[in-house]
Amino acid sequence: MARYSEDFKKSIVKKALHPDGPSVTEISEDTGISIPTLYSWIRKLREDVEMSLDGTNPEDRSILEKQELILEAASIPESEFGAWLREKGIHEEQLKLWRSEVREALKYNKKEERKEISALKKHTRNLEKELQKKDKALSEVTIILALKKKLEGIWFEKDEDQ
Which three-class secondary structure state does DSSP give residue 61? Predict the structure, then answer.
């Protein structure tokens, strides 16, 4: 039988992840749960815990917002970083996860972009081939019409002479 319920673990993880919340050390001292155990719970339950500040879940941010926050975080001095995290309602671990998420999104976009460009090039080649065929057919029809006029001119001239 588990010593702690899943709900209890989630409430502890939520406290630990909250930017304004107590540190893992403080939680450990208050609850008597070892620090390694708390970090283990954080790793396992991070995704299950809904951390909402100002009514928004940091994971619900768009990829563009995440990218902007990552770039902004890079320019914040280390001495002001904690205050900035609290102000934005995010945790340092989220920034790390977002970095990899943004990288994956960019890779995906590049792959999709290359596929799209390749498909467009192929479509353009097919259209150019079709256009060449139509140009050839048009020039053949023009030649045939010109020859037909010449022949009609020759035939009708002979008929008029008679």
Answer: coil
